[in-house]
Amino acid sequence: MSVPATDPMIGRLIDGRYQVRSRIARGGMATVYLATDLRLERRVAIKIMHGHLADDSAFKVRFIQEARSAARLAHPNVVNVFDQGQDADMAYLVMEYLPGITLRDLLTDYGRLTPEQTLDILEAVLSGLAAAHKAGIVHRDVKPENVLLADDGRIKISDFGLARAVNNNTATGQALLGTIAYLSPELVTRGIADARSDIYALGIMTFEMLTGEQPYVGEAPMQIAYQHANDTVPMPSSKVASVPRELDELVLWATARDPEDRPRDARVMLDQLHDVSALVRDGTQELALQSTMVLPASLRTGANAVADAETQVLGAKLASTRPPAATLLGIHPVGTGPVDPPDSGDLLTQKAHKRKRRGFWLFALVILIAVALGGTGWYFGSGPGSDVSVPNFVSASPEAASTQLTELGLIPKLGGAFSATIAEGLVIGTDPDTGSRVPQDSTVTIIVSQGLQPITLPALAGLTQEAASAAITDLKAVVGSVDPVFNGDVAEGSLISASKESDGADLSAGGEYFEGLTVNLVVSLGSIPNVDGKTVAEATDILVGKNLLVVSGEQTYSDTIAEGDVIGAQVPDGTIRAGATLTLVISRGPEPVTVPNVVGMSWTDGKNALTALGFKLTYNPGADAPIYSSLIQVASTDPAAGTSLPKGSTISLKPTNPFG
């Protein structure tokens, strides 16, 4: 792999210990570099989180979780984790360095593997997974990209970045993690994974090793996920007839749709694999040993020697040669094979022996042909060859499928089922499944698609978000966007409305629809809190606690709210969502009033004029006697006329002397 000259990490010393030398690979979460541990003087692989993710606490937690999960495992078939830390703003993970290739590289170069090679890789991967499962760790991302084949013949499983403890394995409300081609049905439908989910992914990987292809393909990830959740993985022998029946059964056991029907963990499957391996290799032990023989060092010359060079990095492939890990497994390109050292006998002696053996081989050939003809007659007459393999009719017309079954000596029968992936009127599959071998004159049911399954959506408005989501997914519909808004008429956490994603049609009252429907939800955040009469600090804390932004606005007079406190919050027009900005209106206290000139007015008129403006009065109560009401006048006010006072202030009145 070429390394960009501008990569700033090349040559950098991390944490005063790890000298970065070259880049190995780059993923969505981190970049892996080849580095030298200056303290222990050894080469290591150092995984550095991308800079734009360093500020995201969720990614940091997941990155550290990978280190802790892998560090808990000490097993020959698990990539060792040596160290984890942070240098400035850069989080890193130090791992064992393994020159070699990945299983994905091997499958890309060679298509498919032999049963013996598949068993060798399976035994190593299951051993590593068994250690993880025993430690309470679920890998959650088993796939060929995470199986490393080292140049020295070691096979290790890596990348515990999605690993999680068994007692904390739910993924509700989060995007599904892992590669869609290897997701178990329970992860697709319920977002839940345990050790049996790793077993399912390993079963899919085994199918791929034996056949060179994945069991499910589709134009969109949702189509592949639907097949995982609703279809049965076919037997590898339906794609490659030479696959032993024992491996067929192992794959079907590991990929059962119901987790209860699978091995409960990797240890159980590993024990069964040993029995399967003995059956598959029975009678071919010598060949099996040869298939994994390591080439002598003297014969690894030229391009093969480059694999031991320092530039061979984790997961990399040499452009001009077959990877050394493939050699260790006994895999050779078409037309080539392992190099055997030449015999040291005399060439003339060899030719003499060949002439003597020629007559024997001619006689043996005649006997062999006779036996083959007899065996062929038995095989197709009364042996296993008389059975018929059910073809693959997916997406074919029922008429074409019926015609082909009839030609094969089978009896076609039509059946039906709903399907979200196969158009109405076309074939979904057969019963027995594709690849099954059945006797001639057997009845085979052709399952024809009836299109999307009708569903009855219940009334959603008023339900809690959790109840509405469960009702939607239980009907094989999909929850689309969730829009939380403030609404004082609907309780917090309950649905205000629901709509159809495709055209916006209102689904609040439910109705008749079809599976696969995507429903968008509008959920209430409750009413906006009332902050009238609160201090600015109190009002700000309350509103920010509801994920609202707050700014101070105009100040105005208030007869009821103390100066400096909040009169109210101005709410923007339209729908209010979390993050909206509210403006606080602040009180300036009561509005000032100017004391009018009531001096010379009659006592009664002067009092009325002042109380009408909101002033409170103090005076000699005797002045209110009826006998004086028409005789006395206002002599003076304190404060005097023209003075500005807050509304509700007290003014002292002095009456005139009625007797002069």
Short description:
The chain crosses the membrane at residues 360-381. It is built from 15 helices and 29 strands.
* Anisotropy-based shape: elongated
In whole angstroms, the N-to-C terminal distance is 117 Å
Any idea what the CATH superfamily of the largest domain is called? Transferase(Phosphotransferase) domain 1
Number of helices: 15
- Structural class computed from helices and strand pairing: alpha+beta
Q: Which range does the strand content fall in?
A: 15-25%
The strand count comes to 29
Cα-based radius of gyration, to the nearest Å: 41 Å
Arithmetic mean of pLDDT = 81
Strand order of the largest sheet: 1-2-3-4-6-5
Q: Could you characterize what this model shows?
A:
This protein has 660 residues and is α+β, with helices and mostly antiparallel strands. The protein folds into 7 domains: 1-97, 2-Layer Sandwich (Phosphorylase Kinase, domain 1); 101-294 and 323-335, Orthogonal Bundle (Transferase(Phosphotransferase), domain 1); 349-384; 387-449, Trypsin Inhibitor V, Chain A, CATH 3.30.10; 454-524, Trypsin Inhibitor V, Chain A (2-Layer Sandwich), CATH 3.30.10.20; 536-587, Trypsin Inhibitor V, Chain A; 592-655, Trypsin Inhibitor V, Chain A (2-Layer Sandwich). It has 15 helices and 29 strands. Strands 1-2-3-4-6-5 form a 6-stranded antiparallel sheet, covered by helices on one side. A 3-stranded antiparallel sheet has the order 7-9-10. A hairpin with a 4-residue loop joins strand 3 and strand 4. The model is unreliable at 1-5, 165-177, 283-322 and 332-352 (pLDDT under 50).
